[in-house]
Amino acid sequence: MPTHFDGSTREKRSLDLFIKLIRAAASVEARTSAPLTAAGLTTSQFGALETLYYVGPLPAGRLAEKHLKSPNNFTVVISNLEKRGLVRREKAPHDRRVVMIELTDAGRELVEAIMPSYVRTVVNDLDRLTAGEQEQLADLLRKVGRPQRPADLGPR
Fold it and tell me: Can you list the domains of the chain with their CATH numbers?
């Protein structure tokens, strides 16, 4: 559904694109989340587990930052994973004020169990685009996702 905002052509085009972007992201997430839901995980929870699996233990704030979430909001994600025994909090040996989040064996096993099915689901869903279209979309999304420099803020 396009915007009903009565603005300039540029404003309406940008708002329409924004609506399409948000709807597409929500739609893809809804279609690909079945393996996560079956394991009782939210997308944020699985994202945290996957990051810890591939990157290793991280400070809680850095983990939240990697997922573009505020540390306060991501604390709930971490707490719920900790209650299930999938992660643990440890004070960093180099600075006791820093809380490191690390996977437990159960968390590692869960990621290993879910990942093949999750990857298959995502690949099947995005196969509606050719390889070239996927690469082009990835480039465009990377461009949109970068912070703007002051020179980028002028009219188009």
Answer: 9-145 (1.10.10.10)
